[in-house]
């Protein structure tokens, strides 16, 4: 176990699959995709999907289409029965000129074609009997290989005439209801931004009908998944504003205080919805880090196992 000031974090993502040239609502079952994509393969997850991912990153450095991230395969394991595919990738940023600096201030230039890499853990999960696939990607603060994994999935699906459904065609960040509830129990709204969008001739520049209002120090304790819009309305009235019968984009910045310090999240609020789109960070425990500060493979797999158990519990998956 490492004694490091660096923290390892885990991101959870989901995606759904559709055929090319069909509507986003026409989602394909995971089982159907595997059967149609790998008709001649006995075990369609391990010998089909998993092996195709391995082939993409095992022979040479794999880079995403925009050439911002790259990596090579370091380690792998899979569970045929549970449809888990775990891997460690040595990867990082590419496409920009980088430098190595030593303690004396000397600088060594690294070509923009090279990659200054770290070790990243990830898991693909394609549950049977559902329409949603999942990915768990470990990161170091803001250093993340998600663009690389987005590309791996895109290329694999494209090879068989499929793509990720939805705007942007990338995986969507998610969290469990349990983690969201814990975040909200310790959080409060710190500030609110209200933007009126009702201009008939809004070209992006300000005018009399386009207004942005930012209110700070809004104290609104949130202990469930529903935000009381009256708190925001009352706060605006206290500052001389009121919300009329127009369309507004309302965002709130939440600040949560826990044993790991403060965590901040900004999300869009909608008075007609009872959910809050906040994705709290998952701070990995020290046991998930090895002596070099990298993810410890076995401990990471056990940690993600528990997250999947929670997903199954909340969605009543069997």
Descriptive tags:
single chain, 318 residues, alpha+beta, 8-stranded antiparallel sheet, 16 strands, 23% helix
Give an overview in words.
With 318 residues, the protein is an alpha+beta fold. The chain is built from 6 helices and 16 strands. Strands 1, 3, 4, 5, 8, 9, 11 and 16 form an 8-stranded antiparallel sheet that branches. The protein has a 4-stranded antiparallel sheet with strand order 13-12-14-15. The protein has a two-stranded antiparallel ribbon with strand order 2-10. β6 (98-101) and β7 (107-110) form a beta hairpin. It is globular. The protein starts with 7 loop residues before the first strand and ends with a helix. The model has no long low-confidence stretch (mean pLDDT 83).
Helix-strand topology string: EEHHEEEEEEEHEEHEEHEEEH
Number of strand segments: 16
Roughly how many Å is the radius of gyration? 23 Å
Give helix % range. Answer: 10-25%
* Beginning-to-end CA distance, first to last residue: 34 Å
Q: Which percent range describes the beta-strand content?
A: 25-35%
Poorly predicted segments: none
Major beta-sheet overview: 8 strands, antiparallel
Average pLDDT: 83
Continuous helix count:
6
Overall, the morphology is: globular
> Given the helix and strand composition, which structural class is it?
alpha+beta
């Amino acid at each position: 176990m490492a004694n490091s000031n660096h923290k390892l974090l885990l991101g959870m993502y989901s995606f759904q699959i559709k055929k090319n040239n069909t509507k986003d609502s026409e989602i394909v079952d995971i089982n159907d995709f595997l059967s149609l994509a790998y008709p001649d393969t006995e075990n369609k997850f391990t010998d089909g999907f998993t092996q195709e991912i391995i082939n993409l990153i095992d022979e040479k450095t794999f880079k995403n289409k925009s050439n911002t991230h790259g990596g090579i395969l370091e380690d792998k394991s899979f569970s045929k029965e549970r449809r888990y595919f775990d891997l460690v990738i040595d990867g990082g940023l590419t496409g920009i000129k980088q430098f190595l600096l030593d303690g004396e201030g000397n600088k060594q230039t690294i070509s923009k074609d090279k990659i200054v890499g770290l070790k990243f853990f990830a898991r693909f999960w394609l549950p049977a009997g559902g329409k949603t696939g999942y990915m768990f990607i470990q990161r170091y603060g803001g250093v993340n290989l998600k663009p690389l994994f987005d590309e791996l999935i895109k290329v694999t699906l494209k090879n068989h005439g499929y793509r990720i459904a939805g705007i942007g065609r990338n995986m969507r960040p998610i969290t469990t209801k349990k983690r969201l509830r814990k975040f909200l129990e310790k959080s409060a709204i710190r500030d609110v931004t209200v933007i009126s969008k009702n201009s008939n001739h809004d070209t992006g520049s300000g005018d009399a009908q386009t207004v942005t209002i930012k209110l700070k120090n809004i104290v609104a304790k949130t202990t469930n998944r529903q935000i009381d819009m009256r708190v925001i309305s009352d706060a605006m009235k206290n500052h001389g504003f009121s919300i009329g019968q127009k369309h507004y984009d309302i965002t709130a910045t939440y600040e949560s205080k826990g044993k790991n310090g403060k965590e901040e999240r900004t999300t869009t609020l909608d008075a007609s919805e009872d959910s809050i789109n906040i994705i709290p960070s998952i701070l990995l425990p020290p046991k998930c880090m090895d002596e070099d500060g990298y993810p410890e493979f076995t401990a990471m797999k056990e940690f993600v196992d528990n997250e999947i158990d929670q997903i199954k519990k909340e969605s009543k998956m069997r």
